[in-house]
Amino acid sequence: MTSLLQRYYNLVGGTKHEAENGAWIESFDPYRGSPWAEIPRCGPADVDKAVTAARKAFEGAAWRGLTASSRGKLLWRLADLIERDAEKLARLEVRDNGKLFAEMHGQLRYIPEWYRYFGGLADKVEGSVIPTDKADIFNYTLREPLGVVAAITPWNSPLLLLTWKLAPALAAGNTVVIKPSEHASVSTLAFVDLFEEAGFPPGVVNTITGFGRDVGDALVAHPLVAKVAFTGGDATGAAVAAKAGEGIKHVSLELGGKSANIVFEDAAIDDAVRGAIAGIFAASGQTCIAGSRLLVQRSIHDEFVAKLVDFARPAKLGDPMEPETNVGPVTTTQQLERVLRYIDIGRQEGAKCMLGGGRPKDGVLGQGWFVEPTIFTGVENEMRIAQEEIFGPVLSVIPFDDDEDAVRKANQVAYGLAAGLWTRSMPRAIRLAARLEAGTVWVNTYRAVSYTSPFGGYKRSGLGRESGKRAIEEYLQTKSVWISCAEGFSNPFVMR
Ligand code: NAP
After folding, report:
1. Is residue 463 within 6 Å of ligand 1 at its C-beta?
2. Strand locations in 115-157, DSSP E?
3. pLDDT tens-digit map of 134-145
4. Cα(236) to centroid of ligand 1, in Å?
5. Is 485 annotated in the active site?
6. pLDDT digits (tens, 9 = 90+) for 192-225
7. Which atom of ligand 1 is nearest to the CA of 217?
8. In the chain, what are the domains?
9. Gap from CA of 433 to ligand 1 centroid (Å)
10. Which of 88, 312, 331, 475 has a CB 3.0–4.6 Å from the CB of 97, allowing a cystine?
11. CA–CA separation, 9 vs 16, rounded Å?
């Protein structure tokens, strides 16, 4: 039977493809709790086609023969097209993952800057001439692309997180196979249409959709994949890195977090309240950098919690497309169940629920996959709700006594993606920023990122960095070229 849902296709070698077995996956609208589109349910045979197309493009003159400056210009052209289509792409993301249009449109309007930044960097990648200790040798290095990059992305910010991989990978001269999450693939499938229009040769960018278990392993294990750039949960990341290790492939991992947002008694309290809200209720808590552990100095704890609850209580849950909505649904039914399970765990562990704590029942909110913004107090640092990534709108408030206690509690966690500090004391901010085990530390702000600044995790939050000029290094390898200027070749049985 023909489906009534709109179908989106993979891009492989410059042409549109459905899965070889003809299977489809329904993509759900989390606001309405119903399917709205279909994407191909691919298998290992489709993976092989996509990787082979990417490798062919990597070896082909149309891409290999471009100068670095020309690659940069293609990325600039792409940036202009994304700017043109930002609203359309943002609408697709909202439909697929339920995040606020204001958030996704903001991301889409910002994404072009990554392509411009890395496009500009493409022809600034330089090798060096190395003064070796050998007379008569001219030694220099070449910085070369790796080959085919597998870019595996999650559902929460599909195009932004893809861009963090794609822009440096292409600037460096690689080709790419993208595997988006099956929960939110549509924006990626629509986005890759822009590559032909921008003038990229066919096969430079390819997509493969399907369940992680059907296509993920096959992609990571494929012998023609040289690097895996992964964003997702730490358990999947560990499995991906192990599989990539078997094939001696390059790997970078952007994983989960359980970030501490730390409020000192000398903070600008009203700003810190907003910072705490931004840390956990923006995007319904579905961001890797969620400030899901709010450490509050004991002397201001009760006053701060009261202000926080007052600020969060009127937050409007609703249609993510509407500008007045503050909190949208969570993206998947699995995520809904997971978040509700953690709320139960928090209660069982003895934490006190000060706000929310369940699903809203009324009207359309009851149909969609909504969770009320939830605040727990009386949380001990050892509790599961203080240690495990929930990835939903659930905040654990943990009191601390002084700087030492704050640092100890903030660092006592397996993750290390980000941290926030709220204080008017710059000496304290500088001192503590150096002691926090996190890849990003924000002082008196939260959730700020830029194409110019490195982003990535300490500890279980990942390996490697995205954004900032060093990110291009993740997609390059170094060749050392030795040229002898000497006459003749001396004793061949000893090392030179
Ligand atoms: P996930 O379950 O780990 O999935 C991430 C991606 O990996 C998806 O495309 C998934 O495909 C795929 N995958 C699953 N099994 C695989 C396998 N065996 N081999 C290869 N790929 C496989 O994560 P998620 O639930 O989509 O996203 C939420 C997580 O991402 C959270 O932990 C969050 O903190 C993290 N995250 C991190 C960052 C960061 O920059 N550090 C940013 C955003 C999100 P399917 O979905 O089709 O299974």
Report:
1. no
2. 129-130, 137-145, 148-152
3. 989 999 999 999
4. 6
5. no
6. 999 999 999 999 999 999 999 999 999 999 999 9
7. 19
8. 6-255+461-480 (3.40.605.10), 260-443 (3.40.309.10)
9. 29
10. 331
11. 6
